[in-house]
Amino acid sequence: MRIAVVAPPMLPTPPVAYAGTERVVAALVDELARRGEEVVLFAPGDSHPGVPLVTTVPASMWDQEGDPVAGLVLTAEIVRRHATEFDLIHSHLDLAGLSLVRQVRVPVVSTIHANPGYGLAADALAAFEDAQLVSISDAQRMTAPRANWVATIPHGLPLRPMPFGERPGDYLLVVGRMTAEKGIAEAMEVARRAGLPLRIAAKLQHWTEKEYFEEMIEPRIGEGEVEFLGELPPAERDPLLAGALATLMLGDWPEPFGLVAIESMAAGTPVIARHGGALPEIVPHGLGGFIVDDLDEAVRYVDECARLDRAAIRRRALEHFSAGRMADDSLALFRRLLDRDPPAPAPRGSVDAAAVARQTS
Known about the structure:
Elements: E1 2-6, H1 21-34, E2 38-43, E3 53-55, H2 68-81, E4 88-91, H3 100-103, E5 108-111, H4 119-127, E6 132-135, H5 138-142, E7 149-152, E8 172-177, H6 184-194, E9 198-203, H7 207-217, E10 226-228, H8 234-242, E11 246-249, H9 259-266, E12 271-274, H10 279-282, E13 289-292, H11 295-302, H12 310-320, H13 323-340, H14 353-360
Parallel strand pairs: 1-2, 1-4, 2-3, 4-5, 5-6, 6-7, 8-9, 8-11, 9-10, 11-12, 12-13
């Protein structure tokens, strides 16, 4: 298959530091290419994927001045110009990529990474009822049950290189963004009540993250053995996951997936997560960790984490959340869509990815 995979313009693919969508996209294109598919990635110019790159914006926009909407619009337009060179377009632009279905004649499938069923997002989905959507969890799908979901494909990552923590550690851990929705203040309370150190590896860049840290977290760091480590690269973050007693995910918002959970379990470390969103689908209660309704339950389950089989936790994570499984699911969907709506005939090998990249550089 000739597949165009479209990444958002905000970060490079793969990302330099911790990220969500871009890490998943990088894992997917690598696996598709390994299987012999003709894959071209549409992404910012500072991306360094393992497949041919078509530059959408000169550089990722996260730390740049400018309107991110303009980057999304430009990305979609560049994809539209090259659509006839592919059998299928796989968009990761969320709602911003939906208009492609009305602009091109090849099949377009859009993986949605956020919860789309609220406010204007729900109206946008309704306006593009013919868009073919992929959910990343059943819980995410339920936020917009009337949308045209064609598959649920949970995220996968190259998890096998994760270090394995054979023995339970003596600290609790939070990994993610410094926001209220990630439950960092709640994790501090659980650690205090459990009498254990807490290490926080969280991104602190956006003004909202800094404001939350200054108001809710920084004043309480002295209340117990709490260590704020900032955003860590994988070489430091992964051993930290493997060495923890448990990873805490106690935010009260409905996570559409939860990459931290699968990484923690791949390291053998159980997850204590709030009951909501996709986490009950990802973390099997009593096997991969514990799903709780409140902080009292979270505190009670801290000691139970030391009794779980960490090797079994890792095995299950590698089986269910590998990049290979994600690629298998994606290819099965692509073939089904192409069988139903085959593209116009074109000579094999007609996609000169290097030439496409030159045209847009």
